[in-house]
Amino acid sequence: MNDVAYDISSIVRNSLNALKVEDLVIEALRDLMKDEIKRHIRNKLERDTQLQAEIRAAITELLEAKVRETYALVRIGKCGAELGISMVPDEMKKRIEKDIADLLEREVERMIEEL
User: Fold this and answer.
1) Which of 12, 52, 84, 88 could make a disulfide contact with 45, Cβ separation 3.0–4.6 Å?
2) pLDDT tens digits for 40-79?
């Protein structure tokens, strides 16, 4: 029975150590500061519609650039795969092409399911 009491005491002590109050307070204060800064930024933007529109346009441009970057990386990967396949003996080419097609089919199906 004494072992059970020690185990429970140990679990409680370890749980309290895991919930360091100082860390929780610091995290809560950090969240409050972030909320206050966000509120201040929103108030400024509400008063300056031109700046708000400019920020929206810049964000749109950034997202479009990220899409173009991703597309370019996919194209580079495709070219690398084509180069690699072109260097393989013909009998292996068909197997590799089938494996790649199967892989792409699975990935596209997974992406569609996630949507």
Assistant:
1) 52
2) 999 999 999 999 999 999 999 999 999 999 999 999 999 9
pTM above 0.85, yes or no: no
Query: Would you call 45 exposed, middle or buried from its count of C-beta atoms within 10 A (0-12, 13-18, 19+)?
Result: middle
| Per-residue CA distances from 16 to 12, 30, 32 (Å) | 6, 22, 24
What's the pLDDT score for residue 44?
95
